[in-house]
């Protein structure tokens, strides 16, 4: 495990499975973007709450918190306990949707990880969200405004569901354009 994530892992393990995740309010908005035969990869899936609500042909979750992955597996999903960047390096599956709800603000090198997504989702969608003005002891970056998010991730299609900004990026021909 990358040393930078050790503190985050400890915090999440100690929060337990009863920790409320406000991202559940975004589930209807996520569902409307899913194709009919969605092959979904949820990076930072936690306990599988989002996976449990989505209608998809295949659902896979990745999270670095063992206790949350155990709970997610109870839902019958394929789940892996691993850091997002490590999983993207070894993944042999192809998906048409990658979900990263409230994950990017926790990643040490979020832009590097975004550049890896087209390998596992060459012609699909990235659906992600980040909190706006919500500092937390697990956030490595805090977004003060919508424009901060738009600039960092080079996005033009987004929805604001306070205090979350959800965005969709179309990945075509294996490329995801974001600032270097």
Provide structural commentary:
By secondary structure, this protein is of the alpha/beta class. The chain has one domain (3-14, 23-171): Vaccinia Virus protein VP39 (Rossmann fold). The protein has seven helices and seven strands. The chain has helices at residues 6-15, 27-31, 49-53, 66-73, 84-90, 110-120, 146-153; strands at 39-43, 58-63, 78-81, 97-101, 124-131, 158-161, 164-171. Helix 5 runs parallel beside helix 6. The longest helix is centred in the middle third of the chain and has 11 residues, at 110-120. The chain starts with 5 loop residues before the first helix and ends in a 9-residue tail after the last strand.
Give a short overview:
Helices cover 30% and strands 22% of the residues.
Blueprint of the fold:
Layout: H1 6-15, H2 27-31, E1 39-43, H3 49-53, E2 58-63, H4 66-73, E3 78-81, H5 84-90, E4 97-101, H6 110-120, E5 124-131, H7 146-153, E6 158-161, E7 164-171
Parallel strand pairs: 1-2, 1-4, 2-3, 4-5
Antiparallel strand pairs: 5-7, 6-7
């Amino acid at each position: 495990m990358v040393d930078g994530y050790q503190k985050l892992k400890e915090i999440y393990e100690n929060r337990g499975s009863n920790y409320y995740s406000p991202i559940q309010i975004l589930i209807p908005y996520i569902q409307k973007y899913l194709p009919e035969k969605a092959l979904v990869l949820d990076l930072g899936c936690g306990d599988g709450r989002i996976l449990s609500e989505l209608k998809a042909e295949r659902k896979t979750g990745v999270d670095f918190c063992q206790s949350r992955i155990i709970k997610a597996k109870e839902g019958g999903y394929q789940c892996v306990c691993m850091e997002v960047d490590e999983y993207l390096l070894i993944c042999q599956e192809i998906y048409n949707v990658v979900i990263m709800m409230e994950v990017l603000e926790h990643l040490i090198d979020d832009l590097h990880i975004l550049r890896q997504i087209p390998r596992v989702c060459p012609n699909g969608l990235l659906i992600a969200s980040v909190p706006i003005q919500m500092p937390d002891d697990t956030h490595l970056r805090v977004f003060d405004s919508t424009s901060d998010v738009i600039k960092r991730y080079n996005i033009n299609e987004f929805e604001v569901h306070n205090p979350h900004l959800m965005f969709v990026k179309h990945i075509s021909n294996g490329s995801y354009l974001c600032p270097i």
